[in-house]
Amino acid sequence: MFWSLLAIVFWLPLPMGSNPPWARGILVLLIAVLSLFWVLGYALGRLETTPSFHRAKWLHAGFMGVIGWLFIQQLPIPSGWALQLSPFSWNLHVTAAEALGLATPQWMTLSISPHDTMVSTLLTMAYYLFFCLCLLLVERPDKLRWFAWAFVVSGIFQAVFGSLSTLSGAEVLLFGEKPSYFGVATGTYVNRNSFAGCMEMTLAFGMGLLIAQLKDSKADSWQEWLRQTLQTLMSNKVILRTGLAIMVIGLVLSRSRMGNTAFFSSLLVTGILYVICRKKLSRGMVVLFVSLLVIDTAILSQWFGLEKVMERIEQTSLERETRPNVSEVTLVAISDYSLTGSGAGSFYTTLPAYHDGSWKGFYDLAHNDFLQFPLEFGVPVFLILALMVIWSSWLAVQAMKQRRSRLMIGMGFSSFMGMLAIMIHSSVDFNLQMPANAAYFVSLMALGVLARYLPSCSRKDSCKKAAGQG
Asked: φ and ψ at 354, to 5 degrees?
């Protein structure tokens, strides 16, 4: 079952980020089947719950509360109730009925697009089950290491596939033709920003694994310092270090402005936070950060177009961008649906009613997750989601500060850095609307719990004993 979980991790980004309807169905099916097998194993006494699973009680409550609300959004209720709870939703239902020549419906849903809300509910349930599986199947440090490596391998594959596809001129996806973004890397995604979001998270996992391998030994002479430095750069860590370089190249080739900004900003902020938590800056950390920031950005990335990313950032004009206008009208829509939301997945149905003529084209997503979630879910449920992310981030910080195991410290670093990167990127994009990226983000939340509470024992029997005591 654990290896099946890792296989799912690798699969999720392959079919265009699991965004097409058929790929979403496979995502839900795979996670549901694996969850069913775990329940069967638990019923037969072959599997047990873990301390990490129990410690995540507030996150369980948050997930179940959100899922429960999504069910309520698509549940038919008396029209009088709908009028009181969501007047604008009631008005749209009445207007639609009048346009079809029908009488005012006696029953209606809070969601203005119940089918899309149903799909979003199934996906959210799958994300929660995936979160639970991460906590239940990763019960030992060796499995945690393999778990992190699965994301790194996935990221390396995405970077290699995207880079070769772009540099060779083939411009293909794994499951179909590439419809847009020619000349930039998109991996197996359609959108370069979604690909960049995947790179941000997988790079975070890689950084955590590198930190887990660092040593705090001190050198008595410059010869010893040089030996340790060379050993750090050229030891068995070279595979992981090379993988990080490949992913940085893939990220730069995406030409994603906020993707690159989010990665390096989150790396810098998390690095500073790491020093504050550990109250020291080891030589290994200095070598790691210098090699990543200097070697990757100043040398490797220059060969693959970092200057083009910088040009895109410099040439960005708010006057030419349509997103700010969409953001403004989305804020107006949020005020109208602040309590109940317009319904999960209903953004493209809600936005046309607020079109003020300031933009052209069709927006099926808000290009800002901090606006789309409160519009669709309602402000109260959005606050629950925000608190869940904050709590997971706090657990990751606590792991960096209190754990002694280098692996747990590194995984705390990965969790915080990955979530911070996506939060920065989500302010101008829709990474969390891509099923594969949303599942990866949920795994980062689970990683924060694992880094904080997973027993550091290395033997299977002793970990079982610790789990029984927990």
From this structure: -110, 10
Q: What is the pLDDT of residue 386?
A: 97
Is residue 331's pLDDT more than 60? yes
Residue 306 clears pLDDT 70, i.e. is over it: no
Give residue 318's pLDDT band: very low, low, confident or very high (50, 70, 90): very low
Question: Would you say residue 453 has pLDDT above 80?
Answer: yes
Contacts of residue 202, Cβ cutoff 8 Å, sequence gap at least 6: 151, 152, 154, 155, 156, 158, 247, 440
**Token pair for 462:** 């002793």
Q: Half-sphere exposure (CA, 13 Å, Cβ side) for 334?
A: 21
Distance from C-alpha of 365 to C-alpha of 347, rounded to nearest angstrom: 6
To which H or E segment does residue 177 belong? strand 176-177
Say if CB 195 and CB 434 are below 8 A apart: no
State the SS3 of 189-254.
CCCHHHHHHHHHHHHHHHHHHHHHCCCCCCCCCHHHHHHHHHHHHHCCCHHHHHHHHHHHHHHHHC
Q: How far is CA 247 from the centre of its chain?
A: 16
Q: What is the pLDDT, as a whole number, of residue 467?
A: 44
Burial label, 84 (beta-carbon count in 10 A; 0-12, 13-18, 19+) = exposed
104 class by beta-carbon count within 10 Å (0-12 exposed, 13-18 middle, 19+ buried): exposed
In this prediction the pTM is 0.90
Top-confidence residue, 214 or 308:
214
468 pLDDT tier (thresholds 50, 70, 90): very low
What would the mean pLDDT of 393-399 be, rounded to a whole number?
Answer: 97
Residue 203 one-letter amino acid:
L
Residue 355 has which token pair? 């079109």
How far from 95 is each of 4, 311, 340, CA to CA, in Å? Answer: 48, 47, 19
Tell me the DSSP string of 437-454.
HHHHHHHHHHHHHHHHHS
**Cβ contacts of residue 246 below 8 Å, gap of 6+?**
156, 159, 160, 163
Residue 117, CB half-sphere, CA atoms under 13 Å: how many?
A: 29
